[in-house]
Amino acid sequence: MMPRIFKADLHIHTCLSPCAELNMGPKTIVQQALQQGLDVIGISDHNSSENVSAVMRAAQDRNLKVLPGMEVTTKEEVHILAVFDSADRALQLQEIVYEHLPGENDPEAFGLQVVVNEDHDVLGFNKRLLAGATELSVEQVVDSICSLDGLAIAAHVDRETFGILGQLGFIPEELHLDGLELSRHTSREEAKRRFPEYARYAFLRSSDAHSATDIGKVWTSLLLVEPSMQEIRKALRGEDGRRVVPEDVNPNVFRLQERVSMGLRPAQGDENYRCCRPRERLALSLPKGLGPGQSRKSWTPAFAGLAGVS
Fold first, then answer.
1. Total of domains in the chain
2. pLDDT tens readout for residues 136-170
């Protein structure tokens, strides 16, 4: 199967996070993600994964991949995103976090922490201090995520508060991070200029949505074979043709390229074709001039170069 583009927003909170709006239930999240054209979302509540299974169930039979995860606060008050392929792995991390999470929530001070099912029926309220910091160091959190075969991503590194650069001032060389997340306020190109010493890491953007209207405000385009954590890991490492797609590349070109690779000429009524820029449409018109003995695949390199695919 040929890689294609997937739009991913890997940092979305539910009503379990005390700072999120109470309408951030599973069905609302799934519906808004689909309306925004997302293919993959990550559920990453503060220091807990109790609502991830509900969101995964809400997305069943929908064209949306939900990856379970968590946003863990280290003892240094650094936010680390954990992303997994299964809810069981996320809940294993939750056990570790709960063992090292002191305090009890004050709903009036911090907000309600609502546990729900896929229909947004209230099942209970989490009484732990999810807004607090764990007793785990950055290294311990990242190592715990890696031991469970998850992705460890430093959250919103461009922010002073709760970002690893703002809290520590640097990224330890021995820290096994899979990527660096940027807030919606910083583009990847700007991040490369601001943080040239961390060019070895893949930068990705997420919405960090606490309300439904924020879901998909920014996203990361990934070239993958399928929407899985293992494929995303390859993209962050630039392995096997998978990669993080430049922000200035039109996603519609990638989707049409899949048709091209099968020898099919894109129809002008195709939604992806209509969304292409004039220069891209010119490339799509090239098959009309093919000579005898030439296959449509022979013009794929020109199309692929336009799309930014090597």
1. 2
2. 999 999 999 999 999 999 999 999 999 999 999 99
